[in-house]
């Protein structure tokens, strides 16, 4: 027998009492609680008091099992949906964002310093060299988290998928309490089990108050928990905000996750124009921060962009114009402001997205921070030149940048800058081209012809020709406009001294079009 679906839903409705708010405060508490319970379960399984979750070796296997243990706390169904706040915020992802959050923030930081996790409300875990243990004073911290308000509901919720050897009997609530306590005591380490279990008899009273069936023969289905009131779902649409819809299995995202989990703090998306560099940087950024755009900052480098725009500069001191004081005062700029935000929220990653990285002079723009953005020098204090304040770069800042290395109008990156970034090369890809055309609704007869042209263009191009030029191409008129007002000039410049190559590319493009449309090509 299993606990009934209605009982589990009833218990779930009470979990929100851990925090009366419906925002970030509750999410942070649930995040910390799920990591504590996952740690406790693995410690019990391994008969140890410390987990080695380092990348590679046995740590890699333990990481997978850690994610499974997190799922026992927050998962809703077998499709990867889970609760982010024990309320109406539901997410999708089979790793429950553990890989892109806990592993790449606090756990990764523990390579360089001891970490007490989380940072707010009180510590629950101790992290050292990617090894995790339960913090000695966790019981006091748990009370600050509000565990006392949800002990009974939490224990019922944690047993939602367990088969229980029991039948309908007059003393069913009493026997069910015994079985629930038994599951909790066998799953979690003794100290954690004692901390989350209510006093004897409390669960029985909770079950007695429930007027519907307590058990059922079938494994419960509570997916409809996600059918929350429409008012709770309402959000203000802002077209500037990217949607967190990049699949977990996306190969570029997986590569970024692997790099971050191994301590990378800077990743360059490199490739010719039209290869989705900016799209990927933003999609991956919004995925890593779980849709919280306030944890993303975006800038674009250009020849006039400077240290004073990016780090700190001098601005007019209006209050002292006539008072005989200093006419200018130092002011924090984009990167320092992001550092301030990240330093106050060390349990979460903050992302800086830099477009056109090499169009400015990165070494001049970063200045002395070129040293301190390196992972080994994060959290090490240094002095700024204008304000003379001592600052450090937090470990939980990641830089995602885009660069076209074939742009002849910019200089190559120097070796010192290159050494601080991992590079992901994004090349023109036929499958992505095909997806774009199919999504736009282009007829299949055209798609095959476009692919042939695309292959010709990339064979002749010295550095590649991107697939995104064909975004939103749904009819023949789109192809006429694309050539006459964009591609013609691009290929004329590309093959300025290669007349035969330009002719071959143009002929390949004309083969896409009907006879009437060809006459409109210039």
TrEMBL record:
InterPro entries, per database record: ATPase_dyneun-rel_AAA (IPR011704), Methyl-DNA_Rec/Restrict_Enz (IPR052934), P-loop_NTPase (IPR027417)
Molecular function terms from GO: ATP binding; ATP hydrolysis activity
Signal sequence segment: none
SUPFAM superfamilies per record: P-loop containing nucleoside triphosphate hydrolases (SSF52540)
Gene3D superfamilies referenced in this protein's UniProt entry, alphabetically: P-loop containing nucleotide triphosphate hydrolases
Domain ATPase dynein-related AAA: 267-421
Entry's transmembrane regions: none
Name the UniProt record assigns to this protein: ATPase dynein-related AAA domain-containing protein
Gene source species: Terasakiella brassicae
Phylogenetic placement of the source organism: Bacteria, Pseudomonadati, Pseudomonadota, Alphaproteobacteria, Rhodospirillales
């Amino acid at each position: 027998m299993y606990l009934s679906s209605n009982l589990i839903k009833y218990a779930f409705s009470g979990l929100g009492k851990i925090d009366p708010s419906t925002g970030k405060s509750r999410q942070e508490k649930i995040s910390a609680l799920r990591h504590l319970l996952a740690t406790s379960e693995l410690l019990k399984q391994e008969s140890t008091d410390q987990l080695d979750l380092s990348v590679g070796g046995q740590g890699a296997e333990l990481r997978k099992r850690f994610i499974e243990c997190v799922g026992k706390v927050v998962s809703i169904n077998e499709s990867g949906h889970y609760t982010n706040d024990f309320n109406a915020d539901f997410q999708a992802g089979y790793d429950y964002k553990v890989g892109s959050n806990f592993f790449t923030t606090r756990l990764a930081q523990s390579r360089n310093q001891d970490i007490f996790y989380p940072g707010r409300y009180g510590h629950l875990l101790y992290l050292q060299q990617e090894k995790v243990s339960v913090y000695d004073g966790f019981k006091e911290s748990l009370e600050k988290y509000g565990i006392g308000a949800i002990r009974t509901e939490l224990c019922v919720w944690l047993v939602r998928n367990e088969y229980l050897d029991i039948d309908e009997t007059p003393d069913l609530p009493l026997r069910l309490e015994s079985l629930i306590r038994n599951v909790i005591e066998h799953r979690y380490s003794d100290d954690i089990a004692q901390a989350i279990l209510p006093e004897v008899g409390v669960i029985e009273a909770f079950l007695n108050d429930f007027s519907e069936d307590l058990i059922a023969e079938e494994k419960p289905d509570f997916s409809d928990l996600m059918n929350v009131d429409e008012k709770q779902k309402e959000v203000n649409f802002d077209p500037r905000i990217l949607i967190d819809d990049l699949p977990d299995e996306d190969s570029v995202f997986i590569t970024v996750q692997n790099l971050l989990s191994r301590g990378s703090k800077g990743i360059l998306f490199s490739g010719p124009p039209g290869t989705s560099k900016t799209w990927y940087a933003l999609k991956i950024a919004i995925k890593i921060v779980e849709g919280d755009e306030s944890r993303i900052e975006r800038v674009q480098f250009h020849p006039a962009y400077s240290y004073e725009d990016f780090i700190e500069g001098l601005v007019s001191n209006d209050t002292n114009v006539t008072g005989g004081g200093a006419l200018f005062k130092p002011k924090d700029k984009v990167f320092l402001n992001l550092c301030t935000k990240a330093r106050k929220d060390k349990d979460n990653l903050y992302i800086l997205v830099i477009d056109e990285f090499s169009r400015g002079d990165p070494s001049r723009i970063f200045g002395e921070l070129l040293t301190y953005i390196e992972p080994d020098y994060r959290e090490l204090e240094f002095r700024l030149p204008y304000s003379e304040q001592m600052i450090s770069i937090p470990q939980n800042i990641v830089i995602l940048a885009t660069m076209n290395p074939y742009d002849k109008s910019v200089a190559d990156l120097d070796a010192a800058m290159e050494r601080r970034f991992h590079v992901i090369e994004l090349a023109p890809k036929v499958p992505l081209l095909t997806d774009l055309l199919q999504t736009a609704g282009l007829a299949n007869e055209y798609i095959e012809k476009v692919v042939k042209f695309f292959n010709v263009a990339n064979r002749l191009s010295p550095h590649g020709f991107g697939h995104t030029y064909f975004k939103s191409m749904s009819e023949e008129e789109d192809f006429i406009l694309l050539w006459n007002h964009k591609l013609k000039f691009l290929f004329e410049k590309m093959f300025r001294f290669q007349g035969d190559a330009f002719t071959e590319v143009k002929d390949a493009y004309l083969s896409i079009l009907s006879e009437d449309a060809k006459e409109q090509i210039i």
